Input
Amino acid sequence: ADGDGQTTLHGTVVQQQHHEERCGESFLNRAEARNAVALLSLLQRYILGHEDSGPRSIGVICAYRAQAQHINSLVANNYHEDPCLTVKVSTVDAFQGQECDVILICTTRTLPGKRVSHLYDNKRTNVALSRARHHVFILGNIDGLREGGDPWQSVLKASTCFPSFSQLKRHVEDRSGAKGAPQSTRHPPNEDSYIA
Output
C-alpha cells in the first residue's frame, strides 16, 4: 500500500491475439487459454523453487464461462498439481469475496474499437483486479484494454513491458537464478508486445 493507505497494483499484462470463438452463449480464446496454463506452470516452478515458500494459491479469473471451462480442461490434462500450491479457475462473478496470492485474469474479447467484453463493466473489472494478495497477471489485448479507460489505463501505467511471452518467461527464470533476462520498458512498442 502507498502512503495514503491505497493499494498500489503492480501487474503483468500479456498481449493476446484476437482469436475468440463463440461457444453457445459464451466465448473462448484458445491461445489465451494455452498461455494461461503455460503461465501457471511457470509460476509453479518459480513459487515452489523458493525454500521459504509455504502453501500458496493461484486464481485464474475469466470473463466468460466457456473460457473458464476450457482452461479447467487444459489444467486437468497439462498441469501437475502440488499440495503446496492451490489453483482455482472460475468466472469473475464466481470469484467475488475470494482472494488468492496470485491472480491471472483472462480478458477475452477486449478488442480494439469494440467494447464487448464483460470486463469493460467497471464492477466486474474492480472485482477481478482486487482478488490478488501479491501480484496480478492479465492476459488481454493492450490496445483494447487501453480504450476501456480507467481502471485499465491506470493498470497499464503501473505495469512493466516485455516484447514477448518468451522474454517474460526468461525474466521469471532470471529471478529464480538464471542469467541474461531482458531489460523491460514501460510502454509496448506495438500491439505484439507483452506487459509485465
In short: The longest strand covers residues 132-140.
